[in-house]
Amino acid sequence: MDFLVLSPPVCPPSEPPSGAFMLASALRGHGFDAAMLDLSLAFYSRHFDTTPQPGPVNAALDYLKNAKEGYDPERHRNCAGILHNDLKRFETICANWKLTAMDIAPPVPVHHPSALAQQLIRSDPFADLWARSLQPVLEQRRPGRVVISLAYLSQLAATLSLVRFLEHAGIQPIVGGSLPRSLHATGSGLQALARVLPHLDLSNGSTLIAAAEQPDFLHRLHWPELLCDRDYLSAQPVVPLALSTGCYWKKCRFCPDRSMPFHAVPDTAVDEFLRSIPEPIRNAVPMIHLLDSAIPPSSLRAFCPIARQHGVRFYGFARPENAFLNDRMLRDAADSGCRMLQFGVESGSGELLNRFDKGIDPARSQKILAAAAMEGIRTYVYMLFGLPGETATDRAATLALLRDNTPFVDFLNLSIFNLPVTSDIDEQAAAMHMDISGYTADEDAICLYRPFRVNGTDHRRTARDFIHNELLMEPAIRRIHRQTPRWFRAAHLSMMNLPGRR
Ligand code: SF4
User: Fold this and answer.
1) Residue 249 alpha carbon, nearest atom of ligand 1
2) Mutate which of 255, 295, 347, 382 to test ligand 1's pocket (most atoms within 8 Å of Cβ)?
3) What is the CA radius of gyration of the chain?
4) CB of 255 sitting under 6 A from ligand 1
């Protein structure tokens, strides 16, 4: 084998981790013998295998894996709750490490890589996982290169442990992924990370192949070999795929993706990838998770006939733009298998959105939500609170937008603005009455965001208080918020049975 791509714990066990999957797919697309081993799935499976009261846990696992008719929201909540409770056992099994379905919290601050490395010497919850799930693969497949995909902070502890294990075995892995790339682009502390992970690769993986082929690295994809023999917790197989890389809009202020080059993936490459999906997965009607920062309308238009031809379902993130109101686009998408769109509506205040060059018009967003819902497409609405300069009037407009459109909003993602450590805000901070002086870099810590105040107040706290004390006091909004599960979010939402949705 040329490449073994490893995804360390923990990532949600409901779908293949997108970064590792895309990397392995791209390596296969470029003709290498490449496979992905999802060690996070193995980690969760091992935990549930040892449950002392297997009855309810096994029934919950069975439901989440096999509800072919789609999920009932109430039953889904119960099953996720049963698993969540069972995961609490982990804290007693492994001295003070806390595990949920999407995160693991060590007993030391996770932002301090050196402290984390020391903690792993005292107690390492992953050590026997490598011996059981990875060692046999290394012995049988003898990979030429081992690549570790570190996408989330929740994977950092396991990554440190995994690197130590591999080095003891005489293997020098390459560590890359979106966490070190984000630290490099808009955060701080890459040096602190590099002290414990000296072999970091800050590319998107393209440096693993010949330089001449690098520009289209993620545009030649083929189904990779998946080495974990456990099933994901999903009623339909979820398959990550991007129709584009970078962001076609590229204008929103302070967005880290603005500096990334935009490329649309050729239709032929998308078709080729779908063609490479193995038959058992095809027969189970895969749910394609479109990974685009924002699906370009032209790409969606081109994807619809391809999706129809391959009989897949899909969901992804979209900007509420005029294109969605034209040319029967939403109907065509729904007829082609679109089961959910995650719309970045962000705010009810057009003036605030304009100040940040968002290119989003709240009145248009409302029309698009209604049109999508009428076509039976689930809507998962992303709202962003606490943008610098957001006033009580802006927040009231946001509340009114949601309250007036509850029949068309199925799920809610209520976010609070985070200020990246590095951004182009510094020269505009004074004009926005922002105080950004409260941040001092800690050279032993990694950090993606920094605190700020606006007009002397903690803007994030104001936003949080508004969400809890006012927004969620609206019964209709609270109902949608409650309908949005805390665990197994996006993929499972696209499979949730709701009246009027396909
Ligand atoms: S649409 Fe999203 S990814 Fe694109 S620039 Fe705006 S915030 Fe960034």
Assistant:
1) 4
2) 255
3) 22
4) yes
CATH of 3-51+89-218, one of 3.40.630, 3.40.50, 1.20.1260, 2.120.10: 3.40.50
Q: Determine whether the shortest distance from the Cβ of 332 to ligand 1 is under 6 A.
A: no
For residue 358, is it left (φ>0), alpha (ψ between -120 and 50) or beta? Answer: alpha
Q: Are 297 and 326 in contact (CB under 8 A)?
A: no
Every domain of the chain and the residues it spans: 3-51+89-218, 237-422+465-493
The model's pLDDT over 365-385, given as tens digits with 9 standing for 90+, comes to 999 999 999 999 999 999 999
Residue-wise pLDDT tens digits, 58-83? 999 999 999 999 999 999 999 999 99
pTM for the whole structure: 0.95
Min mean pLDDT across 102-106, 255-259, 302-306, 498-502 is at 255-259
Q: At what angle do helices 18-29 and 267-275 cross, to 10 degrees?
A: 100
Ligand 1 pocket, residue 367 CB under 6 Å = no
387 lines ligand 1 (CB under 6 A): no
The percentage of residues in the chain with a pLDDT greater than 70, rounded to a whole number, is 100
Tokens encoding 110: 């996770």
CATH fourth-level superfamily of 237-422+465-493? Aldolase class I (3.20.20.70)
Instruction: Give the nearest ligand 1 atom to 294 CA.
Output: 1
State whether the beta carbon of 293 lies less than 6 angstroms from ligand 1. Answer: yes
